[in-house]
Q: What sequence folds into this?
């Protein structure tokens, strides 16, 4: 039987890895902010997704991973197979 770890045990085990990932995200966003913008182009929607995800991470609760996954996911399209041309006959 596996024993459930408490929050302190999880932090003891995972803190350095989580800190490193947060620093990596900060560095990536710094690179984007320092790069010159293309004149006349609208803002890239991916930046909005990143901001939404960061906002979701700052809210307490047990379902952050699901929330972030949904931010980056496309809505389900029941015709996805046909649009990807997966319904055609194969030789």
A:
């Amino acid at each position: 039987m596996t024993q459930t770890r408490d929050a302190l045990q999880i932090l003891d085990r995972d803190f350095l890895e989580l800190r490193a990932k947060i620093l990596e995200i900060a560095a990536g966003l710094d690179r984007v902010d320092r790069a010159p913008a293309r004149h006349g182009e609208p803002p890239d929607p991916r930046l909005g997704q990143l901001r939404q995800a960061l906002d979701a991470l700052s809210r307490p609760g047990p379902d952050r991973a699901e929330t972030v996954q949904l931010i980056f996911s496309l809505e389900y399209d029941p015709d996805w197979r046909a649009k990807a041309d997966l319904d055609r006959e194969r030789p």
The chain has four helices and no strands.
